[in-house]
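Sample entry (179 residues):
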Amino acid sequence: MNNILESDIMRLRALEPEDIDILYKWENDTRLWKMSNTVAPFSKFILRRFIEDQKYDIYETKQFRMIIESKRDGKAVGAIDLFDIDPTNRRAAVGILVYEDRDQGQGYASGALTAIIKYSFQVLGLNQIYCNILSNNLRSLNLFKSKGFTVVGLKVEWVRSTNGWLDEYMLQLINPIKG
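Predicted structure, serialized as tokens:
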């Protein structure tokens, strides 16, 4: 497989105007807000502008989202984001979502993360990518560690939840091939 934005089961693709309804559903699911530091719902107007802004240079917008699409049926199963892109220091944060429970654990997140790592280092020429993962999200923590990310810090009592405070790990992946 030569396309770095694909695996055997998924492909990453750009946002399309037709993605507005699925983004609206995902962004307004309050169960996910703790992971994305969201505290208010998104309007379709704001999401349309977000999709429209994807046409601009990522170094101008400092963010970029791709849809994770199943190769089997073409269904959007999630999204992966590069954000807080810092061209001076050649780094970006990464976040990933596979929305439906039935799609989780099927390899979509793993394939998408492998693809975004290759894209970040080979196409964008970044030196590092990093992420922040809540301490109770063991599935994500294990996924990122399996791709070579290293835990570099722990932010204690970082996020307030209905059950008290949650710690948050910071993980980094440094480009193994300097260029």
